[in-house]
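R.M. (postdoc): so does anyone remember the format we settled on? I'll just put the structure tokens first.
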């Protein structure tokens, strides 16, 4: 039987660093060879975006090495990180384009077609940035509004044997009005006893029948205001 090898975060750091050095070298050297304003601006925008994404990758690796990650989210970072990344990339794009047009067209006549084109591009990117920022903050507001809902984040009990009793501690938010807790697997349920509910924690005892189905059981909590909270694979019965 093969063993799963633990991957060191330093391998990811080395890979990202090598790719970043190669890309930045191309971005710095190519405009000097081409000698074109358009090539220089394009490479600068691409370089800035690559640098931001690389810093985010380093951050994800650093958090992962300390066990701080969320496998359900993109890059294992907290929810909303990718939306914030896109907004930041648009901000960098807007700043770079604006500065380049200002420098390149500073001495051009006001009635030149390229000046009008530059104004349209800056206006378009600015509108896009405003829309992205509005979407990001609106999403954050909506997510914060849903935080009033009771939820279970984890369970401290890893497993129990059939024919024995076990105590399960559930961690979450707004759990103070939980009145009933049960285990569920398919059509089978096991009611909890000695339930103690607090704002961020619920403790319940379960007597596992000898004929209970082995495997992972979900925990189901009912509140006094008729809400049902379910947490998958909270307890493994063997």
């Amino acid at each position: 039987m093969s063993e799963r090898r633990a991957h060191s975060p330093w391998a990811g750091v080395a890979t990202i660093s090598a790719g970043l050095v190669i890309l930045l070298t191309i971005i710095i050297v190519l405009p000097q060879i081409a000698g074109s304003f358009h090539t220089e601006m394009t490479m600068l925008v691409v370089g800035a975006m690559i640098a931001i994404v690389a810093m985010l990758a380093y951050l994800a690796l650093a958090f992962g090495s300390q066990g701080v990650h969320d496998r359900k989210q993109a890059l294992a970072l907290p929810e909303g990180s990718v939306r914030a990344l896109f907004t930041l990339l648009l901000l960098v794009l807007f700043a770079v384009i604006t500065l380049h047009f200002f420098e390149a067209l500073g001495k051009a006549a006001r009635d030149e077609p390229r000046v009008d084109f530059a104004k349209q591009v800056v206006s378009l990117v600015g509108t896009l940035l405003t829309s992205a920022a509005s979407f990001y903050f609106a999403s954050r507001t909506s997510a914060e509004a849903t935080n009033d809902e009771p939820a279970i984040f984890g369970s401290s009990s890893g497993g129990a044997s059939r024919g024995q009793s076990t105590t399960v501690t559930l961690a979450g938010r707004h759990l103070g009005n939980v009145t009933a807790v049960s285990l569920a697997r398919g059509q089978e349920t096991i009611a909890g006893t000695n339930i103690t509910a607090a704002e961020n924690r619920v403790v319940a005892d379960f007597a596992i029948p000898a004929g209970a189905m082995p495997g992972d059981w979900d925990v189901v909590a009912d509140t006094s205001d008729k809400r049902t909270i379910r947490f998958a694979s909270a307890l493994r019965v063997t």
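R.M.: ...and that's the designed sequence above, right after the tokens. Also worth knowing: Residues 1-7 have pLDDT under 50 and may be disordered. The two ends are 23 Å apart (CA to CA).
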